[in-house]
Amino acid sequence: MHSRSFDIILKTLEDKGLNCRILSLEYSLAPAAQYPAPLQELQAAYDHLISDLSISPTQIILGNFVFVCLIFFILFLSFFFFLSFIFFSLSPFHVIIIDYSGGDSSGGAMCIAMCYQIRETHPLPAGMFLISPWVDSRQNERFFKSPHAHYDLVSPDTLCHGISCYLQGQENSASTSPITGSPQGLPKMFVSVGGKEVMNEDILGKKEGKKQ
User: Fold this and answer.
1) Residue ranges of domains in the chain
2) Which CATH superfamily is domain 6-196 in?
3) Quick one: which of 16, 54, 63, 151 has the most CB atoms within 10 Å?
4) What's the predicted TM-score (pTM) here?
């Protein structure tokens, strides 16, 4: 894991006796690793679960996490079994991939992008929980025009720098801007976004005039 503080989460889940297994993916980070390397590593981890460990995709949830969401994440996992029966229609046992990069939004985008890439060739996971997923990396200047620019924890400069480091001049696609892809056939998703986040409109689909 990129952060040792994540051990706190694992210990909390263990103490609560939750009946699940967690795979925490420490994928390569930009700028040392540009697109599509981190995405390929996520798919390799998913393939390992279903091919090498023979775990059914119906028992796999993809998700992203950042340390500032510690309390939310623990609460989410605490009532996850309720969601499993009502929302995901899963059996009581689950495998969860925590997609951690030091920033939750980029990990959320990778979860969606991976499902785009494999939906024609692989069985998809049962669902995804996405915390502020980065769904649109086009037209970076819009971050500076957002009415939430002065409220968000992450500045527009930081967001634009992150996009530049990840793409390094490559063209955008559905794998880097998931909002441009078709949601048809994707797993069910639990999405959380703050009301004052810079990416609020992107995630809610307001820029496109629709929710996806």
Assistant:
1) 6-196
2) Alpha/Beta hydrolase fold, catalytic domain (3.40.50.1820)
3) 63
4) 0.78
